[in-house]
Write a structure and sequence with these properties.
204 residues, elongated, 2 domains, Arc Repressor Mutant, subunit A, 11 helices, mainly alpha
Length: 204
């Protein structure tokens, strides 16, 4: 096997993640990533085409890992409200337990990656959030007719506030400073999420 076969894509993406977090995006050159991975620069170009290809794949992988936790949290619940709460809290838990990937998620804007990424990655980047949005729409449909504490109908935007904006906002300010969110704020976050959603049908 040639030398290029020694270095898996995940090895290179792990190295790129570490370089980005230690040196910033501007410091994540192809040479720096190759050195961190212990790989020849040719293996970077062979697997990802360019530095921008590495960074886009690194971000996609981090987002997909977060999404798996999010969708799994919905899938294990029969009550849509509990599924929504679990999904929202999975963002917090991912930030605590997979801090490096969570930092990568908040560090990049998808629009910037689409503009810079190789053509073959533009469409995967554009459609990356569709599985999660589809799951949230299903939660919204399942909760239709269940009024939130504020009264009226639960709008899709209100559901997004509970299952994405609140946990994302609660974790982002820690992640951008290189820290995991403290576990002590998780109960307060759950209370805030539940305050937006209809009451659960599951008795405490």
């Amino acid at each position: 096997m040639g030398r290029d076969g020694i270095h898996s894509p995940d090895d290179i993406l792990d190295a790129a993640r570490d370089v980005v977090l230690e040196r910033g995006v501007s410091g994540a050159t192809t040479r720096a990533i190759a050195e961190a991975a212990g790989a020849p620069t040719g293996s970077i170009y062979h697997r990802f085409g360019s530095r921008d290809g590495v960074l886009a794949n690194m971000w996609i992988r981090a987002v997909q890992r977060s999404q798996r936790a999010y969708l799994d949290a919905i899938a294990v619940q029969t009550d849509p409200v509990e599924g929504a709460v679990g999904a929202a809290l999975s963002i917090f838990d991912f930030a605590r337990h997979e801090r490096k990937d969570a930092q990568i998620v908040v560090l990049f804007r998808r629009e910037d990656l689409i503009r810079e990424a190789p053509k073959g990655l533009a469409e995967p980047l554009r459609t990356l959030n569709e599985p999660v949005l589809r799951a949230i729409r299903q939660l919204h449909d399942a909760m239709s007719g269940c009024p939130p504490p504020s009264g009226g109908a639960l709008s899709f935007d209100t559901l997004l506030l509970a299952v994405f904006d609140l946990p994302y906002g609660a974790t982002r300010r820690y992640l951008v400073r290189g820290n995991a969110p403290p576990r002590t704020i998780r109960p307060a976050l759950e209370l805030a999420i539940r305050a937006v959603l209809p009451p659960s049908t599951i008795k405490p």
